[in-house]
Design goal:
Layout: H1 9-22, H2 50-60, E1 68-71, H3 78-85, E2 90-95, H4 98-111, E3 117-121, E4 140-144, H5 158-171, E5 177-183, E6 198-202, E7 205-211
Parallel strand pairs: 1-2, 1-4, 2-3, 4-5
Antiparallel strand pairs: 5-7, 6-7
Length: about 220
C-alpha cells in the first residue's frame, strides 16, 4: 500500500504561482479588468503577484484617480496599466530592455490607452543623477519595484537605487505617494528618511509607502 502514498499535494499547491509567473499578467480591477498584457517569458521580468498587486491598490484606494502613475521598473507594465484602469489620468512606464519596452507599447495599443500611456526606454537608476523632465501638473503615484537583489547589502546598484528613491520623493508634487516593493528581508530603516515609511508585509513581498516631500 505504501507505493500508493506519494504526496502530490505540494505540486498542486505550487501550480498557481508557477502558472502566474509563466503567463501574461491580467488587470485585476477597473475599466480594463480581466484584460491581459503582452508578456515575454524570458525571465527578465518579475511581475508582481496578483494578490500583492490587489492589496497594493486596495491600500492606495481612490488616491490613484486623476494621478500620474510612474512605473519605474515597468517590466510587463502591470502596475502602470492597473493604475490607468483604476482611473489614473496618465502613466509613464520606464523600461531599459528594448524588446520589453516594445511589448509595453503593444499592450497600450491593444488596451486602447495609447493616448494615456507613455513608454520611455533607459536605465531609470540614472535618474538619481539627473531627473528628466516629468509632468508636475498632477500628483504622482510612483511605483518602484526593481529586481529584489538590488536591495541586497553590497549590491553594486543598491546605492543608486536608494538615491533614486530619495530624488523622486523630493521631486514629487504635492499629494504624491511613493510605493517601493522589496522582499520581506529588506528593512525600511535602510530607506532614505526611514521614519516616513509605512511597511506592509505581504510575503514574499513587502510594500513600503511614503508621501512625497514638498518644499
Amino acid at each position: 500500500m505504501a507505493r500508493h502514498q506519494p504526496s502530490r499535494r505540494p505540486p498542486r499547491q505550487a501550480a498557481p504561482a508557477a502558472d502566474e509567473a509563466a503567463s501574461a499578467p491580467r488587470i485585476i480591477g477597473g475599466d480594463l479588468r480581466g484584460r491581459r498584457l503582452e508578456f515575454l517569458p524570458h525571465g527578465r521580468t518579475r511581475p508582481m503577484k496578483d494578490r500583492v498587486r490587489e492589496s497594493l491598490f486596495d491600500l492606495l484606494g481612490t488616491g490613484v484617480r486623476g494621478a500620474l502613475a510612474l512605473d519605474l521598473f515597468a517590466g510587463t507594465g502591470a502596475l502602470g496599466f492597473e493604475a490607468v484602469s483604476r482611473g489614473a489620468a496618465r502613466a509613464i512606464l520606464v523600461e531599459r530592455h528594448f524588446p520589453t519596452a516594445d511589448a509595453l507599447r503593444r499592450s497600450a495599443r491593444g488596451l486602447g490607452v495609447e493616448d494615456r500611456v507613455e513608454v520611455r526606454t533607459g536605465d531609470v537608476l540614472l535618474w538619481a543623477r539627473r531627473l528628466p523632465d516629468l509632468p508636475r501638473d498632477l500628483p504622482w503615484i510612483v511605483f518602484i519595484s526593481p529586481p529584489w537583489e538590488f536591495f541586497t547589502a553590497g549590491h553594486e546598484r543598491r546605492a543608486e537605487l536608494l538615491a533614486l528613491i530619495d530624488v523622486v520623493r523630493r521631486a514629487a508634487p504635492a499629494g504624491s505617494r511613493i510605493v517601493v516593493e522589496a522582499d520581506t528581508s529588506f528593512a525600511a530603516a535602510d530607506l532614505p528618511d526611514p521614519a516616513a515609511w509605512e511597511a506592509r508585509p505581504i510575503p514574499p513581498a513587502c510594500l513600503l509607502f511614503a508621501d512625497g516631500l514638498v518644499s
